[in-house]
């Protein structure tokens, strides 16, 4: 696993960004979920999407559905042009996310999802 090429020293990275992002960021799991490695990358991902219906950018996040007990986080978005809604489901069961979260939470950390971490689907590795 290689790290992101982002040229930052750790103290410049905001707390919602994982300094240990990997190339698996935003890859898809076999279940079709988007790999998230911390909180910030999810809104970053949304900001790069355009509406499949009308092609408009940006999509606005309307709601967050906490599915941590499933190792998932869902963001519901709406196109600001045609008002179509889209849901994006992020995988937070992966080891990179959980290690980052555990480090942030310290003794408060509890793992809500007790299944095995989901793996990147190598066949959907280069989805962008
Ligand atoms: Zn649209």
Polypeptide structure, described:
- This protein has 2 helices and 4 strands.
- The protein has a 4-stranded mixed sheet with strand order 1-4-3-2, covered by helices on one side.
- It has a domain at 22-105.
- By secondary structure, it is an alpha+beta fold.
- It binds zinc ion.
- Residues 51, 53-54, 56, 79, 81-82, 84 line the site of zinc ion.
Estimate the strand proportion.
15-25%
N-to-C SSE string, H for helix and E for strand: EHEEEH
* Neighbour order of strands in the largest sheet: 1-4-3-2
Tertiary shape: globular
Mean pLDDT: 89
How would you sum up the major sheet? 4 strands, mixed
Percentage of residues in helical conformation: 10-25%
The Rg value, from CA coordinates, equals: 15 Å
Q: What is the tally of helical segments?
A: 2
Number of strands: 4
Ligand names: zinc ion
Characteristics of this structure?
128 residues; alpha+beta; 2 helices
Secondary structure layout:
Layout: E1 34-35, H1 40-47, E2 59-67, E3 72-79, E4 85-91, H2 95-105
Parallel strand pairs: 1-4
Antiparallel strand pairs: 2-3, 3-4
Zinc ion (ZN) binds next to loops.
Provide a compact summary of the structure.
This protein has helices at residues 40-47, 95-105; strands at 34-35, 59-67, 72-79, 85-91.
